[in-house]
């Protein structure tokens, strides 16, 4: 551990993590700025505790333009009472709060991408300070961690809950049990493009049972995707033995992302036309999308081909695409 990590976090919690009952409060991060000389970023947090039992850490708004998690978690924080549970639930509906209030993926203060900022720094940027607080204060309290994601403004996903393949097979099996309990229409063995700096990796390396989601996208939530999130989080708490009652079982289709052939990236900039929709089966070599040049008429579109057989799982959003953007993601039914 480097010396900087021995400094205390500048964040103070207005809640007591050991107190019984329900507390709604804040993680207060001092942030001196033009419109507030001694101001703070106030990140909403709820702690609900009833006796001894496991602790669940539930987060949304890791990316500020993904909405199913915040909808489900503001709802849960408002409605979950200690009598319905045993143990402790810590809810942070909007982890990167400055990004969430701006409606952007990254923080408007420092352009920090929360899910590339771990383990963070107590003396770093605002985003790094939040990451450091989760790394050193909140993750160590948790037994299970659920971090909600969706596609945000530039991706759209089939609704799935996911966990990663891990070196510790017992930890991996416990995570996939929670994925199953979440009960999204699809369940994923997820491969990351770039796992460095992720909250996921920080939690997993600490031995926590970590699950995540991708529940839609386009910078909004639908009635269906919000419903999946609200039901899923309660199912996870039931499966963890925290919330009383049985898991509401439902049919889920398991998907696997075996390797980098899952991803198709745009190599041109232009107008994207998809030739398949999410959930459709596509064959290796088939054209998933065309990118039409927009500078002149009469030019041929560039075709994006599937690099494997699979289910069309995620797509670029909205209609214009740039070279380097993730155009399509495929996954294999298990
Ligand atoms: Zn995200």
From TrEMBL:
Q: Name one GO molecular function term.
A: metal ion binding
Cofactor(s) demanded? Zn(2+)
Q: Where is the signal peptide?
A: none
InterPro entries per the UniProt record, alphabetical = AstE_AspA_cat, DoeB, N-alpha-Ac-DABA-like, N-alpha-Ac-DABA_deacetylase
Succinylglutamate desuccinylase/Aspartoacylase catalytic domain location, by residue?
A: 53-239
What keywords is this UniProt entry annotated with? Hydrolase, Metal-binding, Plasmid, Zinc
Pfam families xref list: AstE_AspA_cat
> Gene3D superfamilies from the entry?
Zn peptidases
Q: Which PANTHER family match?
A: BLL3975 PROTEIN
Protein name from the UniProt record:
N-alpha-acetyl diaminobutyric acid deacetylase DoeB
Please report the organism this UniProt entry assigns to the protein: Sinorhizobium mexicanum
């Amino acid at each position: 551990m480097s010396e900087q990590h021995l400094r205390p976090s500048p964040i103070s919690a207005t809640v007591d993590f050991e107190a019984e009952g329900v507390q709604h409060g804040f993680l207060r991060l001092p942030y001196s700025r033009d419109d507030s000389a001694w101001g703070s970023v106030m990140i909403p947090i709820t702690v609900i505790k009833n006796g001894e039992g496991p602790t669940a850490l539930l987060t949304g708004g890791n990316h500020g333009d993904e909405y199913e998690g915040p909808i489900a978690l503001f709802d849960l924080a408002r409605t979950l009472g200690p009598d319905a549970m045993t143990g402790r639930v810590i809810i942070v509906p909007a982890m990167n709060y400055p990004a969430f209030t701006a409606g952007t993926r990254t923080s408007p203060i420092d352009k920090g991408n929360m899910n590339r900022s771990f383990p963070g720094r107590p003396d770093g940027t605002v985003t790094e300070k939040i990451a450091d607080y989760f790394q050193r204060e909140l993750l160590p309290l948790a037994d299970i961690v659920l971090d909600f994601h969706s596609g945000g403004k530039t991706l759209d996903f089939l609704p799935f809950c996911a966990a990663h393949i891990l070196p510790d097979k017992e930890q991996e099996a416990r995570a996939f049990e929670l994925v199953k309990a979440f009960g999204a229409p699809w369940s994923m063995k997820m491969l990351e493009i770039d796992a460095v700096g992720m909250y996921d990796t920080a939690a997993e390396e600490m031995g926590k049972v970590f699950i995540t989601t991708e529940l839609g996208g386009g910078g909004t939530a639908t009635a269906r995707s919000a419903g999946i999130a609200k039901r899923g989080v309660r199912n996870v708490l039931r499966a963890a033995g925290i919330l009383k009652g049985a898991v509401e079982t439902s049919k889920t289709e398991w998907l696997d992302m075996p390797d980098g052939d899952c991803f198709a990236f745009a190599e041109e900039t232009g107008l994207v036309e998809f030739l398949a929709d999410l959930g459709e089966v596509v064959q290796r070599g088939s054209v998933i999308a065309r990118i039409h040049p927009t500078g002149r008429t009469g030019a041929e579109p560039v075709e994006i081909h599937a690099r494997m057989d699979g289910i069309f799982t995620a797509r670029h959003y909205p209609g214009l695409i740039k070279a380097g953007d993730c155009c399509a993601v495929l996954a294999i039914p298990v």
